[in-house]
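Lab channel / #folding
Pinned by the channel admin:
"Please post every new chain as: sequence first, then the structure tokens as a reply. Keep commentary short and put observations after the output so the thread stays searchable."

First post following the new format, from NK:
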Amino acid sequence: MRLLLALLLLMEPSATALRRVLVTGGNKGIGQAICKRILCDHPDTHVLLGSRNQARGETAVQQIIDAVPGAAGRIEALALEVTDDASVAAAAAAVSEKYSAEEAPLHGLVCNAGVGFGRSIPETLAVNLYGAKRCCEAFVPLLTPEGGRVVTIASASGPNFLSALDAAQQQVFTSPQSTWAELEETLQRYAAASDYEGQAYGLSKAALTQFTMQLAAEHPRLKVNACSPGYVLTDLTAGMGATKRPDESTCHVAPLFLLFGEVPTPAGSAYYYGSDAVRSPLNVYRGPGDPPYTG
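Reply from TO:
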């Protein structure tokens, strides 16, 4: 009996061995599904569930604990409003202080928090692009310096948006040489329009992928990639034809691959992946099961 107990203790990951992953917008939808699958598939992980509202975050944590055996003690809520400088700074300080005894508090950061269709370009960019950028600036310094992971949740709406542009316009969003200043100047021109024919969401996701490429270049020792979770029935897509809810879908496949898998060389960074965890182009839609993009 003593030998069995000793073996069980050895098999159970210690608090210091846990790989911590922060998922923004983790209290519902795709974010919550990602949190669940991290805990289900990787018993050596601890999830920080980011939520703009602490109470909703705590409720989501309890829902996950009830649904995932062994999740208790491996997940916590973190108040995090991605559009608010003070909130993001406070969240980063809290994580840094709580895990100050460790060299790197985080293994991974998943920038999932976002808004959907029907908003203006400035409103959409504020969350989908600038919110992700704000979180990266605050939490990337807390990542494992060698091989830490950043995953930005983009969308096939990004390539679909870019496919309608001419080559010169596409270049800003697809070139590895594009700078933040060039991207922002372009976005400001789009934002001057009232809605740009309803393309605010696709624009924001194309911009997010370009920002991801820039972040990867700034942090060559990290693994920094973007991915699509697929077309999933959430609050953002209700009434738009999606049929599978997050827990019924494969929305977790690409994010978990980029968090824990062996991302192909070279560098394993600065790529965009489809929902099937296969590399995809930035300026044209590639469906699940189609050949991988190699350009």
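NK: The beta strands are 19-23, 45-51, 75-79, 108-111, 149-153, 223-227, 272-273.
TO: also worth noting, DSSP finds eleven helices and seven strands in the chain.
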